[in-house]
Sequence to fold (404 residues):
Amino acid sequence: MFPLLSALRRNPLMPRLIVLQVMVACAILCNTLFLLGQQAAPLLVDDGLAGDELVIVDQVVSRGAPWTPAQVRAGRDALASIPGVHAASAASGVPMRQTLTLTFDLKSAGGPTLTTTGYIGERLLDTFGLRLTRGRDFLDTEYRDINMSNDMRTPIIITEALARELLGDGDPVGATLSSGDGTGSYTVVGVVAHLMRYQLSELDDGKAEYSVIIPGILAGMPIASYVLRTAPENREAVRAQVAQVLEQSFAGQLVPGIEPVVADYERLRDDGLRTRRAAVWLLSTVNAVVATITLIGIASLSGYWIQQRTRQIGIRRALGATRGQILRHFLAENLVLVGVGLALGLLLALGINHWLMQHYELARLPLPYLPAAAVLLLALGQLAVAGPAHRAAGLPPASAARSV
Fold:
């Protein structure tokens, strides 16, 4: 280490510039990699749905009194009669639509309180195409008309992700969950593998699958929504008939000027997550640019610094230093500089994250992102110096005389 430190002390400018560049790059990469992970994670989540088979019907608005459960079921039956429809469900809360947002605070005994997204409807497992992993579907006797103003005491189906957060590794089937304020009681009767929330602003930090299903029809609502399941090749034909069927089923009861939304699920998902995909491309570009600039910067600074020491390299070669020793010297030297830059950069990254948490409500930077960024920059640093180091190792001893 002494020859390395001695060389760094004699020529402090270039080492300081390399350390500064690595420090800034590390601080930027730690936070942008974190933001990239946040934006990309929901895009990779399995939504659990038979996506290419679903047609979403939303924003069916009553012009008078709120829809009664009987009217909602009549609309469902009319839509189910469309040729090609295999299953139809009335639902309060439908995938990728936020016309009506239902949230439930759930708490297990001694566990955390989590805010979840609620899907209320009938036969949703079959219509959505969800895969039940534990427990059972709702019984016919468990479907009822639900009034949210009363105490909620009902069976529910939750996701595997939610079960892990609320109940750990234990079997969730049969567990009793309470509402955040203690007025509601929910018994878990089944668990589905996946079901993404329709609250698109609540998909970060591993919360994308905090979803529950409640059996019944929500009473007293001015908006009705439906989900239809059909074969992919029949979706367009089914969509084309929905508006006419709704007009016939709700003759004179729909608000003029507010057309029901009829769309296939895949298009809604594409539209709903478009902003996230754009953010992923932007952050990926930022990370690539920072990494490239760092690579070029270290290579340029190291190359210039090594060139300035041509005479010393030639003398060492004349004294018997091998090409391998020269190469290892510069790689070790660069490793020390990058290591110092990383140590300072990681502290700066945490400081920037703390500032963003205070002013922009950004989540805390998870610690695994720190070693990830450090490994990336260490690899970039060694790659950047490899070329100049190889050229330096190839200098003949006579270069000392020529450089005098």
